[in-house]
Amino acid sequence: MHDVRSTVVLNNTPSLDTPLLIGEGTLHDTNTSATTHSLPSDDRLLHVSVPAITDVSTSPSQHYDASCHEEPVMRPDTESADNVSSSREEESILNCSTISHSDQSAVIYSPSISDSLKTEPSSVSDLTLDLSDYCLPMLYGSSSSLVTSDAGPRLSPAPSLAPETSRFILPTVFNANIRGGFCQNTDELSAVLHQNYVDLACITETWLNPSISDNLTEIPGYITYRLDRNDGRHGGGVAILAKQELPCKLIDLPNPTHQETLWLLYRQPCMPRVLTHILIGCVYFPPNANIKVMNDHILDSLDIVGRKHPNLGILLVGDFNHLPDKLLLSFPLKQIVKSSTRGLATLDKIYTNISHWFSEPLTLPAMGKSDHCSVLLTPSINPPPSHGYYQRVKRRSNNPNGKALLCLALKQHNWTTLYSLSSCEDMTRHFYTTLITYLD
Prior knowledge:
- This protein has helices at residues 81-91, 111-114, 124-140, 186-195, 291-308, 326-329, 400-412, 416-420, 424-439; strands at residues 5-10, 34-39, 98-101, 104-107, 146-149, 152-155, 173-177, 200-204, 222-227, 238-243, 248-250, 261-266, 277-284, 312-319, 334-335, 348-352, 362-364, 374-377.
- By secondary structure, the protein is of the alpha+beta class.
- The protein folds into four domains: 1-100, no CATH class; 109-159, no CATH class; 173-377, Deoxyribonuclease I, Chain A, CATH 3.60.10.10; 400-439.
- It has a six-stranded mixed beta sheet, with no helix packed on it.
- It starts with a strand and ends with a helix.
């Protein structure tokens, strides 16, 4: 037997389970006739075999495309056995192998892809299903990713679609006048709140009364704070819906005139230095109500909370009707709702001193049978940067030499003018003026 290298030209179709042995010597295949050509070379050839497809029934209509078989790869004899073994595994990938059965074809994957799929599909349809699971996210740019496990490939859930905001967690506020029917509109209200990722919802004209149970006003994921009108008049009432995990608390402020206002104090663990707390006030000012009483109540409430929390952010949300806002604007607050909310008038407003931390409010359709448009206020994605500034500060010297000089100057000063003054106030004023002069 001569040391020759052989290439194979297939004349007949081999069976799927028959290995093709390419290498030194003669081609051994009892079911296939082949013509061999001698190629003189000192290199060894790889042994390439066609991988068998399990659990696929064969029929006379099946055929094998011999034009797609792997070409022999020449390697030098100097390679180590380990390198040859690893290279054989890499280069034994079939470029294309197709099995046709009843006019349906299934593509055989390369090992890099097929390793992530089922190793023994029960049928051709199972293999095609795995192909779809692998390729669809790649083709359509889906946000889901392929996760491989022992049970086979699966799609991981898509990430949250909640809008991105700054690292400071500020609330998304919803303002709506529903004009009654709070209990009948809970489903619609729940859908709007969850779809818009609302943290706080200020509802005016709830038309609730103490006889209505709190169970009828509950919305999944939210806590309901309500203030009903209890003076015998029909209508009115305010409510605030806050997310259960939201760090806010209801605060009780003096309200001797029984104004329809509700107050929450909001505080996140991560807040800007210039904004330590946010006061949310839900306000309903009925038509023809006392203007002075409402303005005094709002300003007094802001003063009480502001004295306790100096760096206080304010959000006054609600239906103000035609309440004159000159005093509110001079607090100073800014009215940021620019579009009309009922007809051509802007009745549902938002007054705030932190408008630069929020985007421009959006106007949404009315809730239920109300004729008031809703308003949505969302935090700004790009909040204002907190720029520092330089301030020149003068301070007196505190060294011992300065103190000694001050003591000497006071001893040597002529205080005759001080004793000649008639009133105590004039003497005190002269003493402090002299003392400050020496200190400066």
